[in-house]
Amino acid sequence: MYHCFGCGAGGDIFSFLMNYLSFSFTEAVEELATEAGIKLERTGRDTTRTDIFREILAEAQKYYRKQLSRKTGTVAKDYLEGRKLSQQVIEKLGIGWAPDEGGLSAHLRGKGYSESQLIESGVALQSTRGSGIYDRFRGRILFPISDRRGRVISFGGRLIRKSATGAPKYVNGPDSPIYRKGDYLYGYRDAARASRDLDMIILVEGYFDHARFVDAGFECVVATCGTALTSPQARQMGALASVYICYDGDKAGQRASVKAAEVILEQGYLPGIIAIPRGQDPDDYILENGRESVLELISAADDPIRYALELLGGWSSVRGSEKKVKVVKRLVEIAASATEPVIRETMIREICEQTGYSMRTLELEIEEGESRSRKPRMGKLKEIELNTWDSRIIGSILLSPSGLAEPLIDFVEEDDLRSVSGCGILREIKKQADSGMDRFQLSLLEDDDRAACTRLLVDYPEQTGKNDIDRLMKTVKKERLQGECKRLKSKLVSEKDKDNQELQRKIIEIEKKLINM
To answer: Are the C-beta atoms of residues 214 and 89 closer than 8 Å to each other?
Structure first.
């Protein structure tokens, strides 16, 4: 179990992987089982929709790979040869080809998969001209996107000929039950392994940039899957190694580099930004200059403040008071995105050294900016604590020896609790108990409920015994009776007939029970 007193996050080992590395619960279980050398057995009932979708994607990958080696794939092979990608990296990355005429949907239908399954898995689209489906990817080089266990979960496709219909150059698979663009990084699995030795992970924007880095011997590289960098992706990289951003050298790429740096800073990490020369992208640069030049660029990588200033030609090139104020405010915005205090102060000091502004002035600017936005710093959960009554009930359930909590779980109802989080935690406890779970899984709680629960478990004084549970159940029963008595008395006062004999009788009965408790 863990609880961060700084940000309020907490939970068990499963929720740690889910929050810190954006694993799903299933992925967390599978990852921990692999680490522990435990083989997970599936029952027939466990063959779920997600299993079927993974089968479809795996079969699609085989199909696309075969198409590249056939005569219909000649145009694709010529294109890849023109891009000077080695056969070794094409094989390593599993790059394939989706023919212009399609064919995957028919192939998969022949394997017994339904049209709805192909659509939901992301490999096919519903025809707009009536019934039937057609392939999502046609006339495209395909890059398989894998999960952290190496299973194909989607594709990214690059058009190699100009489209008469104005089709986009790149198309990515849609979100599905097994894939969410913002949660996965292309190439993550291999990069995670390589980063352990190099203590470095390189972030690029495109699939071909990624392939070029791998071809040059850099396996510690990942790419976003057709979206801007997200917080989950930033956390995954930061947890592995030092992050280096390497986007295109044009203005759009430079702006995107700074934006990506802010997302990484928000997750508590300080990235470096590799400055690709203007007008080039990483693919072009590596092809022309080779591995050694890339290593030199990495060693010369700037922090976000220096990089942002270099884009302007340095502080000395900033002319005029109005322009200087505007530039400093933007630099302060970048520094303010850092949630880690040491990183934030380091960046503020960097701005001071570069511009001559005082620390106090910049700190005031940050405070005013945060006050204006009225937004909490990202990465910070609400610090929620259960009230004393709810803490006593939840703590008694979770910290009692095995077997003693069942009567209390059955007895206590949500109406007995006094907070939203308390009710949420009890609801999940009952749900897991009904499903036969032997041990309560904190990771299945909502974020705020999990934070409150882990804080409670860290602070709770001692384990609960049978006598404690018996006394608590008696107290809960007493609370219920007192509440019912109070409700009936209020009703009696509001009744037009103050001599309502039935209400008076019920009140007397409850008061007798309370006296005898």
So the answer is: yes
